[in-house]
Specification:
Shape: globular
Number of helices: 2
CATH class: Mainly Beta
Structural class: mainly beta
Order of helices and strands: HHEEEEEEEEEEEE
Helix content: 10-25%
Radius of gyration: 22 Å
Amino acid sequence: MFRVIRGIALLVVMVVFLAGCGGSESDTNMTLTGTTTVTIAFAGLSGNGSQFIEYDELGFRVSSGIGSWEVMEGYGNPAPAIIFMREEDEPEFQGEVEITSSGSVFNFNSVDLYSSITPIPYTIKGFRDSELVFTLSDVVPNTYGNFKSVENPEATDAIDTLAIRLSSPVTPCCSNPVGLDNIVVSY
């Protein structure tokens, strides 16, 4: 009898343990309502036109991925910002940056996008444990050299990696810089 009760108790402990461990669908859609909101504003960057590879600010790392990103020291929302350039004779060109926080989860709230003379096609993806959590994809109308904030309607979804990909469409006349500033996150 003692053996049966001990076996049942062990079974109950295992069921409770397994029910509380990962693997449920709700874990993959975990939400986080961050109490601390910060803006990655690239304030520590300098060297106008210098290559942008990676940058740490407020516990977050922004790394260049696709494209040749550079520092735009004299312009931003406020300055500086990061951009990539598509030359006049080049086809549509893309640039992507990745944002992480030492493996910690965070929320993505918004980012300011910029283009000199074109609309801005963008795709923003949030990942957690390498699994896609959300995708935002749209086109910001021509900002005529200004910045336009893109808000995340999935801002409570917890992620550990954010990828922001921008496109610079072909223009009939000129080269075109496209870039970003003010990545707003919370944790």
